[in-house]
């Protein structure tokens, strides 16, 4: 038996023993036979199982609604990004994969906005603007920096 199950068993054992003693005492006082005790026990077990099933269903529906809401928020943000816009920052509460995806989408939108701002400065003739790469793998950022340096070189020639 696993240690957690042993601990749970040891915690429940006194309650089970007291419950059985109460059942036998009531059976003796109320003149209830063995079949009636079994029927009562099965009824109580059935009620407990029903309550557990209802609780599981409520918690499952709650989780499904939370996931659905998070996916809808992410979908709206990616729709805005896919049409060339920048979604408003959003946050999905939690420490799960969906909250990490929302953080990454916010970072992506920020990087795309910075690139767009850099391009706007360059296209308006402001070659003094600096651009910080998003990371070592920022291919688009490197290309933009290359365009800027070529424009600066062409302007000085």
Can you put this structure into words, describing what you see?
There is one protein chain. With 157 residues, the protein is an all-alpha fold. Helix content is 78%, strand content 0%. It has helices spanning 3-30, 34-82, 97-123, 139-156. Helix 2 runs parallel beside helix 3 and helix 3 (97-123) runs parallel beside helix 4. It is rod-shaped and about 110 Å long. The model has no long low-confidence stretch (mean pLDDT 84).
Provide the fold topology.
Layout: H1 3-30, H2 34-82, H3 97-123, H4 139-156
Helix pairs in contact: 2-3, 3-4
Structural class: mainly alpha
Unreliable runs, pLDDT <50, ≥5 residues? none
DSSP strand content: under 5%
Secondary-structure element pattern, one letter each:
HHHH
N/C terminus separation:
82 Å
Give a short account of the largest sheet.
none
How many H/I helical runs? 4
Percent of residues in helices comes to over 70%
* Rg, alpha carbons: 33 Å
Judging from the principal axes of the Cα atoms, what is the shape? rod-shaped
Q: Summarize model confidence as the mean pLDDT.
A: 84
DSSP strand count: 0
Short description:
With 157 residues, this protein is mainly α. The protein contains 4 helices and no strands. It starts with a helix and ends with a helix.
Structural features:
about 80% helix; mainly alpha; about 160 residues
């Amino acid at each position: 038996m696993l240690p957690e199950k042993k601990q749970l068993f040891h915690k429940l054992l006194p309650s089970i023993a007291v419950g059985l003693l109460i059942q036998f005492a009531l059976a003796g006082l109320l003149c209830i036979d063995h079949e009636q005790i079994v029927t009562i026990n099965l009824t109580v077990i059935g009620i407990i199982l029903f309550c557990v099933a209802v609780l599981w269903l409520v918690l499952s529906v709650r989780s499904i609604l939370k996931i659905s809401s998070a996916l809808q928020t992410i979908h709206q943000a990616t729709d805005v990004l896919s049409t060339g816009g920048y979604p408003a920052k959003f946050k999905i509460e939690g420490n799960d994969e969906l909250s990490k995806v929302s953080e990454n989408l916010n970072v992506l939108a920020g990087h795309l906005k910075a690139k767009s701002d850099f391009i706007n400065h360059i296209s308006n003739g402001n070659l003094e603007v600096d651009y910080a790469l998003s990371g070592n793998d920022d291919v688009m950022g490197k290309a933009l920096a290359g365009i800027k340096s070529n424009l600066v070189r062409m302007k000085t020639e």
